[in-house]
Design a protein that fits this description.
Strand order of the largest sheet: 1-2
Number of domains: 5
Radius of gyration: 37 Å
Order of helices and strands: HHHHHHHHHHHHHHEEHHHHHH
Structural class: mainly alpha
Helix content: 40-55%
Distance between the termini: 96 Å
Shape: flat
Strand content: under 5%
């Protein structure tokens, strides 16, 4: 008989290779995690007579509306202001700049004229100690900008610090071992059969499945009927989706995050879309509405750890710059240049021309929330069409939605008449004529 070798020796070899692989993977993972852990470096607080922590709170409360530390706004940048002016002068300027300008102080007049003669708000309520705290905050060293190391390649998908290439390499190695084991086992079985002089009986060949299926007339008829029904179902569904843009999510020329504005900052929808209260159309907000806030917000203010942030600070700041380019705003001089560029917004919600829809009737009279039709816009990073806006969807809403008639003079008379006629306390839009064709179609 042919000698087949020692199977126990083979098993030990495979076990040793597998153990070595798992050990190497564990060591590599520990080293990667240890290398990825950042060293904790405590920044030394700024020295001086004031408290920079309290100063930051006072700065955000009293100064941040007109000043930044490292960029001009309505007023000058305040980083290192304690080195530019003496404290006694700063006390007088902050508490009442107008009196200092009227006195003819050269420094005060220069600052006043440099910034378009904009009057600074007086802060007589701030004590000298409060001002010392603010100055201490402005004297802190600016944090160094994070610059990525081009020599280091970090895979963003590897949350534990282990390279995906390493994991794929180990998996490929294990797969190779398994393939080697299968080939070896097949070879061993073949050698055993040959050494024993055995013959493997082949299974008798039967009729192929497709030939048996074709010969069965009943199965063929049932299959044809099912095929026709399924085809009709999918064709009907396909044709009914023509003109339905649910999920439409175009890229706009200026990225606007409803998630940050309406979600994190809680800006009401009707602050920007003010015409929704009084007009048929909600309207596209004027860029002047954007500048009400962004005249003083020239860069993204959110934290990179916020759940509302999906892009980098540089990305959002770049989009704000697009707004400045569109309206012709120079953030350095805090003035309009007169050079504007039209913004070609892409319309998302678009009803057919033969459909009449009035926003004011639904928003003001009916009291319908914007989210009823537009979805939870406060969670959308990119605006999209959340509902199908089909005729069936509108009719279903009219059948289910009760009209808010309380304290609503518009519906007072018709509510009293219909309540008596129908014997109900609540009225749906359908009961008030919301299913009539002429209500929505010209």
């Amino acid at each position: 008989m042919k000698k087949l070798g020692n199977p126990k020796s083979f098993s030990k070899t495979i076990f040793s290779l597998a153990f070595f692989t798992m050990f190497a993977l564990g060591v590599s993972a520990q080293e990667a995690v240890a290398a990825a852990a950042p060293a904790a470096v405590a920044a030394a607080p700024a020295t001086g007579s004031g408290d920079p922590v309290k100063g930051k709170e006072l700065f955000n409360t009293n100064c941040a509306a007109c000043h930044k530390l490292d960029a001009k706004m309505t007023g000058p940048a305040l980083r290192g202001v304690g080195d530019k002016y003496d404290k006694e002068w700063l006390y007088k300027w902050i508490k009442n700049s107008s009196d200092l300008i009227k006195s003819g102080d050269a420094k005060a007049v220069k600052v006043y004229e440099e910034f378009a003669k904009a009057n600074m708000t007086a802060f007589p309520q701030l004590s000298n100690g409060d001002i010392d705290n603010i100055i201490a905050y402005t004297m802190e060293v600016a944090p160094a900008a994070e610059t990525p190391d081009p020599k280091k390649s970090v895979d963003p998908d590897s949350g534990d610090g282990v390279s995906n290439n390493l994991i794929l390499g180990v998996l490929a190695f294990v797969l190779g071992i398994l393939v080697f084991m299968l080939v070896t086992v097949k070879r061993l079985l073949k050698n055993v059969i040959e050494s024993k002089g055995l013959e493997v009986a082949e299974a008798p060949k039967g009729l192929p499945f497709w030939k048996a299926f074709v010969k069965n007339q009943f199965l063929m008829v049932v299959t044809a009927i099912l095929f026709l029904l399924i085809s009709a179902y999918f064709m009907y569904g396909y044709f009914m989706q023509i003109g339905v843009d649910k999920g439409y999510e175009p890229i706009q020329p200026i990225h606007y995050s409803h998630k940050i504005h309406a979600g994190e900052n809680g800006i009401d929808c009707k602050y920007c879309h003010s015409s929704a209260r009084v007009s048929k159309n909600a309207g596209i907000p004027s860029l002047n509405v954007c500048m009400n806030c962004h005249k003083n917000i020239a860069e993204f203010q959110g934290s990179k750890d916020s759940t509302y942030v999906e892009y980098t600070k540089e990305f959002y700041t770049g989009e704000i710059q697009k707004l400045y380019d569109a309206v012709g705003w120079d953030k350095a001089t805090q003035k309009y240049t007169g050079k504007t560029k039209p913004v070609k917004w892409v319309r998302i919600h678009n009803l057919p021309d033969f459909v009449y829809f009035n926003h004011s009737q639904h928003v003001t009279v009916g009291g319908i929330e914007c989210q009823k039709c537009h979805g939870k816009v406060e969670s959308f990073e990119v605006m999209k069409q959340d509902q199908p806006l089909t005729m069936g969807w509108c009719i279903n809403c009219h059948r289910e939605t009760n009209v808010k008639v309380e304290d609503n003079g518009y519906y007072k008379k018709i509510h009293e008449q219909l309540s008596k006629k129908l014997g109900v306390d609540k009225l749906t839009a359908a009961q008030m004529g919301g299913l009539e064709c002429g209500k929505c179609h010209y």
